[in-house]
Specification:
Number of helices: 6
Order of helices and strands: HHHHEEHH
Shape: elongated
Number of strands: 2
Largest sheet: 2 strands, antiparallel
Radius of gyration: 17 Å
Strand content: 5-15%
Low-confidence stretches: none
Length: about 140
């Protein structure tokens, strides 16, 4: 007997992801951020709090994004005054990133907004711990 779309985990994940992306766009729009901008800014903010001074490759890897995709997004964030990029003195091919005070302020505000949106979006999930465990396993990038 063939499966219905409602029996396909991939189909359901696709639709869940689309719905979640619309929620993120609605949450971040008033902050004048796209979701990729948010991910990079929040990742840079987090790495900065850990004392790291990442280059674009390190940030792209941390964010799970392709390095070629990251560069234009970082240029846009830099033009908005949220970060600076400087040539790495030890590797002139690399750009070191530094979050600015306005960037850190926006990252913190956006992270609070995204966490609140996530709490609402996932409110009906009966077992959050198991959902997180499953998502960590499925993402293939994070420990359980």
């Amino acid at each position: 007997m063939p499966l219905t779309p409602e029996d396909s985990p991939g189909f359901l994940l696709w639709h869940t992801t689309l719905r979640w992306q619309r929620t993120m766009a609605a949450t971040l729009g008033p902050l004048d951020l796209t979701h990729p901008q948010f991910v990079l800014l929040a990742s840079l903010y987090w790495l900065d709090t850990q004392g790291a001074k990442p280059n674009q490759l390190t940030l792209a890897t941390h964010a799970g994004m392709d390095v070629k995709t990251v560069s234009p997004v970082l240029r846009r964030l830099e033009s908005k005054g949220y970060l600076t990029r400087a040539t790495d003195p030890t590797d002139t091919r690399a750009k070191l990133l530094h979050i600015t005070t306005p960037g850190a302020d926006l990252a913190a505000k956006a992270m609070r907004a995204v966490e609140a949106a996530d709490a609402t979006f996932f409110a009906d999930v009966p077992d959050r711990a198991n959902l997180l465990k499953a998502l960590r396993r499925l993402s293939g990038t994070l420990g359980e």
